[in-house]
Amino acid sequence: MFTVKTLNKIAAIGTDRLDKAYFTIDDTTETPDAIIVRSAKMADYPLNPELACIARAGAGYNNIPTDKCADAGVVVFNTPGANANGVKELVICAMLLVSRKVVNGINWVKTIADKGDEVAALVEKGKSEFTGPEIMGKTLGLIGLGAIGAKVAKAAKALGMTVYGYDPFLSDALKADLEGYVTIVATLDEIYAAADYISLHVPCNDSTKNTVCATSIAKMKDGVRIVNIARGELVNDDDILAALETGKVAAYVTDFPDGKLAASDKVIAIPHLGASTPESEDNCAIMAADQISEYMLRGNIVNSVNLPNITLEKSGAARTVIIRKAEVDLTALLNAVAAAGAKVTGSADKTRGVYAAAIIDTDTPITADAFAAIDGILKVRTI
């Protein structure tokens, strides 16, 4: 029986998919075999020896110490695309909010609510303060064309926008799918020069943090409008606030407000609603549960963000999954299996950076002790 712990509220439609013959949910346990998490911070979370995997019910995983987990042989999954439609819809909403001063207008109307019969006339007199451009005919620059960015591109095209996209990791399949919707450019500078609107759709890491900063803003069109429903740290707070003051940036909407941004009347701050739809939460929970089940019961790794993705059709009576440092050669593992008196009936091996994962099927079960003498083994699971 495997114990699964949830660190946030996870939709039951997902956890109910975990076969009760093999899984139990216990949110109080200190020794889980698997964890499902949304936004809970795990930087200081103790990784118990039994822990085999963590499923992030969402796309971003900055709240999980993925390198620490990899060193412990703990697989971290995310759920790419599961919340893409919900985020796409909020991005389209955000583009309209940075175009028309809808939020300011709504807030102003509330200030005159006590005027009674005068409200209608006051609205007609004051509405010119809240005008803004249409998005039709404007150019949208997308930084990142993954599951969400691709959906935004198609929606924006349908709304009459010209769409430019930058993504150095774009697959050939997705590039073909976006043909006719997006002009794909080779550099960010081309986005900055062309775009009336810029929307960010990349993870936050050392290479993407502060993508929008004083240097990049200076390359943008005057009056550019910026949408950030991806990660707060992609935009430098001080630099965006300074650009809003000068008018270089006409409007900024973020789904990740902090003290500085929330205090500015020039920022539209949304309370992290990107994936906060029941459909998104259900989809993420389902995918997270399925990935845990696939790994715990069959040893297959799907949508890992820190270790190799690897699958193998089972061909023997027993299966062993070995997470290790990449310098440990597969031959050493196969020799250890042979020394344990088992015959290999099938195997697969994948590397990812400094880590590797192997699945070895055998005619008879073997134990983790068979690999104890090999340096660089991080975790062994027998199924």
Helix content: 25-40%
| Radius of gyration over C-alpha positions, nearest whole angstrom | 25 Å
Uncertain runs are none
The domain count comes to 3
Assess the beta-strand content as a share of residues: 15-25%
* N-end to C-end Cα span: 12 Å
- Briefly, what CATH class of the largest domain? Alpha Beta
Number of strands: 16
User: Considering the protein shown, what is the CATH homologous superfamily of the largest domain?
Assistant: NAD(P)-binding Rossmann-like Domain
* Series of secondary-structure elements, N-terminal to C-terminal: EHEEEHEHHHEHEHEHEHEHEHEHEHEEE
Mean pLDDT figure: 96
CATH level 3 topology of the largest domain: Rossmann fold
Which structural class should the secondary elements be placed in?
Answer: alpha/beta
Count of helical stretches: 13
Shape: elongated
- Looking at the overall shape, the CATH architecture of the largest domain is 3-Layer(aba) Sandwich
